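Our example pasted here:


***
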Amino acid sequence: MSSALQWIPALLATVFFALSTVSGRRNVRALGSAAANFWRQAFAVLLLGIYAHIWGQGFHGASLGWFLLSGFIGFGMGDVAIYLALPRLGARVTALMTQCLAVPLGVVLAWAWHGTRPSGSDALGGGLILFGVVVALSPSGPVARPEGLVTTGGILCGIIAAVGQAGGQVVAKHGFQLAQARHTPADPGTVTYQRIFPGVAVALLWFLWDRWRQTQISPGTAAPDYRRAAPWIALNTLAGPTLGVACYQWATKLTDTALVLSLTAMTPLVVIPLAYLIDGDKPTWRGVVGGFIAVGGVWVLTAGHRAA
């Protein structure tokens, strides 16, 4: 595949992730964090399972264990943190923290795993990313927004989400390398199916615990309006854990991890107009400037890796 075409899967993943973030915010409003996360993954398992067991490898493959571990870290720990961050940070800041902070964290994890020392561009890029995130998180005026209010708990969830994103990506890349070394197939659709299974198990446990907790606190609480949320659940399912992650794994298989991370780190910038059009979330100037600084830091950090 030509170098130009190698960009396509990562760019598609960027658009899908942005749509997933905004639609996920709508689902959280309608259903709550636990239910929104569970139903998107549950429907995604059905869609991906049809593909994987008919045209893919199902639960076979030399890297099955690595992909399951990657899914537990990314879909399990990471997605729970994302859906806890969405009502606390809003779609724009959640995407910014998840996608941009994942890049320097990925560099650190790769250093710890493979012993690859960070370069000067790594340090400069990481500093720019952190500065951009701080600018985006800082208040732009004396009056706080009623929705997407930045809280300490939300920031912690955003950091955990970024760790899940980075850790899942590093482990998945190792799985692809192992499959290639053993000359066994590992197509993106099957890999996404294998990765989402541990995630949906974690999501189910969280969903059941949340339902039990609600019945204990408020026994007469009305059931969520699933009919009204159905279109957003469908969009969230297709854009996030199905097409979005499949394109992400496709990009990971075809090209360097640094390039994939640098392109998908533009997700927060794509979220800005989508959040405004779909959710009425008007961005602050600090949020926009911080987003551009953080994405610029990603490109600085990955420049050396792309040239290598």
